[in-house]
Sequence to fold (214 residues):
Amino acid sequence: MLHRHTVGDVMTEEVVTLRPTTPLHEAAALLDANDIVAAPVVDDAGDLVGVVSASDVLRHETGTPDPQGRGGTGEHVWSKARAQTAGELMSSPVFTARADWTIPRAARELRRRHVKQLPVVDTDGLLTGIVTRSDLLDVSIRPDAEIRGQVEQDILGRMLGLDEGSVTVEARDGVVTLRGQVPQTRLVPVIVGLCQGLEGVVDVDAHLSGGRAD
Fold:
């Protein structure tokens, strides 16, 4: 089978974390020093209890409300305004991902939750990594040469056993163009479907003919 990247393939495993007792000025310094937009908050047992983002810290420092209204109302807002530690400012509960999620599933979750990153947890809820929009984008936008190689070697060669050169493959800006002849007509939609399923493929333009009908 063709390998489909998962969250576990692209996530960052060495995660910068905060404790609930971490002072906000230290949290801000860690975010800045590591050039990250957010850090998970974990307790002494390693359980994920919240997330503090750079925007959270900035809004706290400037007294600016959350434009998406996620700060809550009443006493909750006032409590966050007085926050001195990561635990007092953090957002909770946390939207998380699993390492075995597919890239499209993680991307949809990021979009649905309106967040830029998702902490990755195991079945016990322990933090194992973090995945960001840029991690997913790096997988989606693959070099054309890499796509062409996978079509030629994995699909046409290893999976279908076609003679080398019987089908020429071009890839440009994610669009795969196929030209040539295959042993059977029924293989044409199979090849097209397999190519469409490759990560990074935008479209498939097939100019293939079958050697004989089924």
Q: What stands out?
A: The first helix runs from residue 7 to 10. The first strand starts at residue 38 and ends at 42. The two ends are 24 Å apart (CA to CA). DSSP finds nine helices and seven strands in the chain.
